[in-house]
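INFO  loader      accepted 1 record
INFO  loader      residues=397
INFO  predictor   begin
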Amino acid sequence: MKKLLLALLALGTTAGVSAQTPEGYQFTETNTLPATSVKDQSRSGTCWCYSTLSFIESEILQAGGPELDLSEMWIVRNIYFEKAVKYVRLHGSLNLAVGGQAHDVTNGIRDYGIVPEEIYPGLNYGTDKPQFDEIDAVIKAYADAVIKAAEKRSGGKLTTAWQDGLNGILDAYFGPRPETFTYEGKEYTPQTFAASLPIDLDNYLEFTSFTHHPFYTQFAMEVPDNWSWDKAWNVPLDEMMQIIDYSLEKGHTIAWGTDVSEKGFSRTMGLAIVPEADLEGMEGTEAEKWGKLTEREKEAALYKFDKPGKERTITQELRQQGYDNYETTDDHGMQIVGAAVDQKGNAYYKVKNSWDVTGPYDGYWYFSRPFVAYKTMTILVNKNGVPKEILKKIGVK
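INFO  predictor   done
INFO  writer      dumping tokens
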């Protein structure tokens, strides 16, 4: 996660509801799926967990289950342990930070189960919301000290106590993990509670779209937050967008990994676009004036966010260039919950964020279709929300 995002930091509405920013964007929702309440990741780089657990909560609703608030910190605490162990095994040659990806949540549920938020809030250090400045620093320093001590020790052996020490630190900050708990009058373990949910973790598939690996094969996305080296299916851009649209049509939301460091992403406006000058639509005098503007003046004109305008045509090559040049990175995770159009008929996706109930849309955002096509890193979806012809191409039934 980028340092900027680390520092910054109700049920879905129905189709047909409109909202408008003062600057002139008016959205009409065409399909909005149920989602649980907006949360606040606060000062923690845990968007990957908030967004994917929100996706899982929507999957439970979609399957006819109850509205649940699952514990983000349960997943974060357990994944932090796994990440630190791998970091030590690799002698520190791994990204040991709180960032992660959507598959970390499904892996965490599979390996450790899951508990409701009320059972494990994970705030054992005196704040009402996550604040990870100290936690991140302490865990990194501890793991580095373990590695350094082992390298100095005869034979380079680790002690038998270091993992217990790591668990002690995690318990101190997040709280001890309950072996059993009672929820709504019934006793569970984290594993039996996970098994009681009306979802099948084997149904979830991760997709991406880049040309440096063959299409219809899996590869481990080469980004620092993919510490577990999990693989995603690689499909052409148009098919990745088909999956997003088809999934929403079939009633399944999407856990979305993306990049919000772009100038076209506006926190205050609650929207994201990829604007381009409409040179073909300019009359002679307009085109002449545009040509005389400095690059700074052109940029200011493109990013006024005053009304819908022309956006870039996103190609597979443009996506790849953004990734290869570090312009597109995995810096944020959110949940795509629906679709919308603006007053000119341009397509957008409605997205649930984890930055509290803020902004003009109370914690929700509108991302243009070109932005999603351009800046999507990965999507995690229910395979029942993937077109059958695409499943056939990757050999998944």
